[in-house]
Amino acid sequence: MKRHARGSGSTIAGSSTVTRTGEDKADDGDGGEGRAQASQLRRRLGRSDLRAVPETRRALRELLRHWGKPGRSDIAELLTSELVTNALVHTDHDAVLTATVGPAGLRVEVRDFVARRPQPRPPAAAAGDGTHGRGLLLVQSLADAWGVRTHGVGKVVWFELAAGAA
To answer: What is the model's pTM?
Structure first.
């Protein structure tokens, strides 16, 4: 069952970084069991800089190198490309990507600074060349969950993929 949620919250903008949070899954040597580890990628995307799309795909590919069942990282790259492209093409502002990998799966958020909510639309409704209008339909079809969260200034469009799903 797919989940589509809306809510509010905040995302912190920062430079490109990959971080690990939590403790290793293995015993930490103090006799206590360690907690699952999470990794995170954050990247500021420059206004209208479409070079950020392949750069983001490469950074996400590296983050997901050992994650999920075969094919899941390919889906994650595709959906991330769609959200990043939408943020850069449909706004006249910077955007911020945050991708977090944890034991349950992957969550990708792209924050922009325009309040207008995106709406999935059929490709036939897209203008001219037929290359527009598919991004959110792909997200809606392939993600385990997705949504839009509004902020005081702008919004976050996000999706989640479970690591173990086929």
So the answer is: 0.74
Give residue 10's pLDDT.
Answer: 32
User: SS3 for 31-53, per residue?
Assistant: CCCCCCCEEEEEEEECCCCCCHH
Task: For residues 96 and 53, give the distance between their C-alpha atoms in angstroms, rounded to a whole number.
Answer: 12
Write down the mean pLDDT value for the chain.
77
The full DSSP string for 10-22 is: -----SSEEEEES
Closest of 120, 109, 100, 123 to residue 154, by C-alpha? 109
d(C-alpha 95, C-alpha 93), whole Å: 7
The predicted pLDDT at position 130 comes to 59
Average pLDDT score over residue span 76-105: 92
* Closest C-alpha to 65, from 74, 56, 53: 74
